[in-house]
Design goal:
258 residues; mainly alpha; three-stranded antiparallel beta sheet; 51% helix; 4% strand
């Protein structure tokens, strides 16, 4: 998505994919000149399609639950927020997918969240970049905000659910262990991104339907998404789960997925 990430050096984006990328992930990030061209306030048709695709990639993961909770919605705008908007917090992106994963995150901090629930949340956070990779072969600068949301939850996942593939140390004793953790976290993020691409490949019909509806109407409410997310398949290690009875129980301001 096109967001405050325009102010972030593209070199960071290239560094994020430097470690052993899985088979689906292109080593090419969006060229700097293309990013600059797309960063004009008014979005071009190409940029609007990218925003819609990115948000659809997030939204499809909400369909993994046993229902689409009442508080889910997705939106997109036709212009990039100004620096003044970003600084004030009035508007930080050109689109968003908002909903009940925040309530699950709250449960996670009390260690009540199940593994498949947290894995679905991580997939949802990777879903925007995965949708871009699936449709264009590369991820845009919009993935930066998603990564900032992804990393703390990934650290908790790796700490709570040990896996020999991801030897993560909860309390690193020194610089060597800290560096090892950073490498493991990067590899894990790329793994989840690869699995998210697989999931969206299997649910391409739903992703394209959400993206098309967003382009046409600009905002989708829960009833729209319930119709569009019918028939999703499990794929890419992501499993179905049951939303807790107290979802939705959230504050929108703390659950912004760009």
């Amino acid at each position: 998505l096109i967001a405050i990430a325009w102010a972030v050096s593209p070199l960071l984006l290239h560094a994020l994919v430097a470690a052993q990328a899985p088979r689906h992930i292109s080593q090419r990030m969006m060229p700097l000149e293309r990013i600059i061209a797309m960063s004009a306030r008014k979005l071009s048709p190409e940029a609007k399609k990218l925003v819609a695709t990115h948000e659809a990639g997030h939204a499809v993961f909400f369909g993994l639950g046993d229902r689409v909770p009442e508080d889910i919605f997705a939106w997109m705008d036709d212009e990039v927020p100004s620096l003044e908007d970003v600084a004030s917090g009035a508007k930080v992106a050109a689109g968003g997918a908002v909903g009940a994963f925040d309530a699950l995150a709250g449960k996670h901090y009390s260690t009540d969240l199940k593994r498949n629930e947290l894995l679905a949340m991580l997939g949802m956070l990777a879903g925007g970049a995965a949708a871009e990779i699936l449709t264009t072969g590369e991820a845009s600068a919009g993935m930066v905000m998603d990564i900032s949301n992804f990393e703390p939850k990934a650290r908790l996942f790796l700490s709570l659910y040990p896996d020999p593939r991801w030897p993560y140390t909860m309390n690193p004793a020194g610089e060597q262990e800290a560096q090892s953790n950073a490498l493991v976290l990067t590899r894990f993020r790329l793994h989840i991104l690869d699995r998210a691409v697989e999931f969206l490949e299997q649910n391409r019909q739903q992703m394209d339907a959400v993206a098309g509806a967003l382009l046409q109407r600009g905002e989708l409410d829960v009833e729209d998404l319930r119709k569009l997310l019918v028939g999703e398949k499990q794929a890419g290690e992501f499993e179905r789960f049951t939303w807790p009875a107290d979802v939705p129980a959230m504050a929108y301001a703390s659950d912004y997925i760009a």
